[in-house]
UniProtKB/TrEMBL annotation:
It comes from Stigmatella aurantiaca (strain DW4/3-1). It comes from the Bacteria. GO terms for molecular function: shikimate 3-dehydrogenase (NADP+) activity. One of its GO terms (biological process) is chorismate biosynthetic process. InterPro entries: Aminoacid_DH-like_N_sf, Shikimate_DH_fam. This is Shikimate 5-dehydrogenase domain protein.
Length: 407
């Protein structure tokens, strides 16, 4: 299910509901903290599919309750709703132990009422607690009634793991707005549901600003896009997820940090593979770097940036007969000529001193970020060469082979 954004009202709200349903959403949520009764045509929305109406602060309009398939009320405030529609919920204001969570639910509920328990996930280690809480609530209320969710900047992989036993899946349509921090993307959840994996360990990609990533489209499901803050505790997170994931793709800005964390002899890594009780790390970016250098066909090139992608280029350049001149931001003083490679992520602004003298510059990002980088190269006097897809496919083939060996 997806939540109607607060900026959409009237006919725009109906168009949103239609678009969500075409993309695979089954239920539309309306919240009283986001919309007043005059902002939406509840009957028109109801014609587009089942509605969940949620009381958040302001009381639920009677017309909303009448039109809804589900009525969400906080069990500490009121459970006044038709028994066949009731979704009893609680949003804790802190992370709870399983015993604390169960005590909240130690009260009678109508036998058909759904149960939703939500907590902030303040630390990666709390994933195990939420899973235990989910198990115990299912034992109490039944597998067809319970949903347990985490919230926060680290919560997405926890929600992905919990989703396999949850009754309800709250997801985000994408873009700049999300109803809650940590929600999965609708497209990813639908892709997993349609693949109907049978007991497979999850895979995922770890990075920052990775909504554009195509990895979920080409790797087997379930595959999660795990977008984390740049300074987030990625090391502790991957350790807490070891029982639940067979492997991860690692992208900027975590390639160097996770190389150090896994005690890799490599400068940077882009792949984690589960080996029993630990992670083994690899850098399949060398296959991407090989593909790019061969496509460029140059004996020398400058490289803009010195992160994980540059480490892969450096590792393979001698074998491919290409001499690299790695330029950090402070090294750039005058116009650059010849052949180059741009490794800075799209979100990193280039220095104002960067200009090209008709240089041909390979772009190893793809999709919208790659196009934005290409535009920047043109603006600064260079000619972009879009090689991101070649890099991506070459390294992904090797990742798939490695993940098949996970234990």
């Amino acid at each position: 299910m997806v939540t109607l954004p607060p900026t959409l009202q009237g006919a725009d709200a109906v168009l949103f509901a239609q678009g969500a349903r075409r993309r695979g959403a089954e239920v539309l949520e309306l919240r009283t903290d986001l919309h007043g009764p005059e902002a939406v045509d509840i009957q028109a929305l109801g014609r587009e599919g089942p509605l969940l109406v949620s009381e958040r602060g302001r009381p639920l309009p009677t017309a909303w309750v009448d039109a809804a398939r589900y009525v969400d009320r906080d069990l500490t405030v009121s459970l006044d709703a038709p028994a066949e529609k009731l979704l009893a919920s609680h949003h804790a204001d802190r992370s709870l132990s399983t015993d604390e969570a169960l005590r909240l639910w130690d009260r009678p509920l109508p036998p058909q009422a759904l149960v939703k328990h939500v907590e902030p996930l303040d630390s990666p280690g709390h994933v195990a607690v939420l899973l235990e809480t989910q198990t115990r609530l299912i034992e109490r209320f039944g597998a067809d009634r319970v949903t347990v969710l985490g919230m926060g900047s680290l919560a997405l992989p926890a929600r992905a793991v919990l989703s396999s036993r949850n009754v309800l899946e709250y997801v985000a349509m994408g873009g700049t707005w999300s109803a809650a921090p940590g929600q999965r993307l609708l497209d990813d959840a639908v892709r997993e549901f349609r693949a109907q994996p049978r007991g497979q360990a999850r895979l995922g990609i770890l990075g920052t600003s990775i909504a554009h990533s195509r990895s979920p489209r080409i790797h087997r499901q379930p595959f999660d896009r795990i977008d984390l803050p740049e300074q987030g505790p990625v090391e502790a997170l991957v350790d807490s997820l070891l029982p639940h994931y067979a492997g991860f793709a690692v992208t900027s800005p975590f390639k160097l940090r996770l190389a150090r964390h896994t005690r890799s002899p490599l400068e940077a890594i882009n792949t984690l593979v589960r080996r029993g009780n630990h992670w083994e790390s690899f850098n399949t970016d060398v296959e991407g770097a090989r593909a790019v250098l061969r496509r460029m066909g140059s004996q020398e090139a400058f490289v803009l940036g010195d992160g994980g992608s540059t480490a892969a280029l450096r590792a393979i350049s001698a074998d491919e007969g290409c001499s690299l001149r790695v330029l950090k931001r402070s090294d750039i003083a005058g116009p650059l000529a010849g052949m180059g490679i741009w490794t800075w992520p799209d979100r990193v602004p280039p220095p104002e001193s960067l200009h090209f003298d008709r240089a041909r510059v390979a772009v190893i990002a793809y999709g919208a970020p790659g196009r934005r980088i290409a535009t920047e190269i043109l603006r600064r006097g260079g000619t972009p060469i879009l090689l991101g897809a070649a890099w991506f496919v070459a390294q992904a083939r090797r990742q798939r082979e490695l993940w098949e060996t996970a234990t």
